[in-house]
Automatic annotation (TrEMBL):
Gene3D superfamilies: Glucose-6-phosphate isomerase like protein, domain 1. It comes from Alistipes hominis. Residues 38-197 form the SIS domain. Zn(2+) binds at residues 62, 66, 173, 181. The lineage of its organism: Bacteria, Pseudomonadati, Bacteroidota, Bacteroidia, Bacteroidales. The gene is gmhA. PROSITE patterns: SIS. This is Phosphoheptose isomerase.
Amino acid sequence: MNVEQCIADQIRASISTKQAILSDKGLMRNIAAAAQMIVDAYEQGKKTLLAGNGGSAADAQHIAGEFVSKFYFDRPGIASIALTTDTSIITAIGNDYGYDKLFSRQIQAQGSAGDVFIGISTSGNSANLVEALRMCGQKGIKTIGLTGFTGGEMDSMCDLCIKVPSGETPRIQESHILIGHIICCIVEEKLFGDLKPNQ
């Protein structure tokens, strides 16, 4: 194995996926629309809920952390809950109702009409996210999906599905956190731009 070649190939593949996002006007509009959906929810005193499995669970927690703490500059925290973090809740639901209900049960308990749910899945077919989206529909919660290029089942279930133009899990996940960061940047600027320190 040529390690240097492997490193270069991985970096080039990541850049190529991000260039594909940059050149897709529809995808760029969806990212902007997702950010505005979240801004509208926060302006109405609502919150964001996020969920995913594995690496996507880490992405959900990462994005929630950016909202509650800060992204670029000091400002008030905004309400955001990653549904992947409370081991007692997760294991209770998994044990009592099954893994497919992991997120929908939490949304039923803690979600409110006007909130925004962000479901993250490279395939778009994660059963527990599909169940979560069904619950969001019942409760009047807006939905954003972050998926790979097909969108899977989530494509038709989300108010907005942001589909990364790749079928490779690492490339999709790298792009999901980039898109999450872009959304955080826009939301923070729109809500709190007047608090931004002079550059």
